[in-house]
Amino acid sequence: SQTIHQWPATLVQPVGSPLSLECTVEGTSNPNLYWYRQAAGRGLQLLFYSVGIGQISSEVPQNLSASRPQDRQFILSSKKLLLSDSGFYLCAWSVPGGGTNEKLFFGSGTQLSVL
Amino acid sequence: GENVEQHPSTLSVQEGDSAVIKCTYSDSASNYFPWYKQELGKRPQLIIDIRSNVGEKKDQRIAVTLNKTAKHFSLHITETQPEDSAVYFCAAYTSGTYKYIFGTGTRLKVLA
Known about the structure:
The complex is a heterodimer.
Chain A: E1 3-7, E2 10-13, E3 19-26, E4 32-38, E5 45-52, E6 55-58, E7 64-70, E8 73-78, E9 87-94, E10 105-106, E11 110-114
Parallel strand pairs in A: 2-11
Antiparallel strand pairs in A: 1-3, 3-8, 4-5, 4-9, 5-6, 7-8, 9-10, 9-11
Chain B: E1 4-7, E2 10-14, E3 19-25, E4 32-38, E5 45-51, E6 56-59, E7 62-67, E8 72-77, E9 86-94, E10 99-102, E11 106-111
Parallel strand pairs in B: 2-11
Antiparallel strand pairs in B: 1-3, 3-8, 4-5, 4-9, 6-7, 7-8, 9-10, 9-11
């Protein structure tokens, strides 16, 4: 069966520090991968998505970036964190292709606090 | 760009009553509509979904309806229980874009 791993679960970082969040998926090949951010008490904002290795689409211009160095690995990065980067970051995956394959599954999330 | 509007933002019901959450999407090419339940500090969990070629789907106490003409879909929870209390999100997916666009969420409180 497929599983998604996301770490760390919580992170406290000072303003101006770098960030690296990692997500890996097991049990499937060539998944579509996503990064969402959820501000406290708010909705799910799509940040980046990837349909293949090295292919990254950005939805929101900001000081974050994403990379997909391997088929089932998705990384969210920042060179210098801002206070506004605080939030709950969720990685997600799906296997598109019609039929019953559009289901989107989330990782357990990373609670990031920028102080 | 694509947009999903969700109402209401908060909903309180008495245990045993029904709850209805409504969403409207903007992209007429959207073809898949999932609903998620999120408990505090946890990941969103898929609870039910519907495809554009279906008008209604039911799973025990939960049902979803879709009106493609109006670009409107709804979640119906019957015989609500305290454990149904959570934040619910709707989403719209369009195959050609690979994007899942979420509504802003509804905080459901079931009062015992």
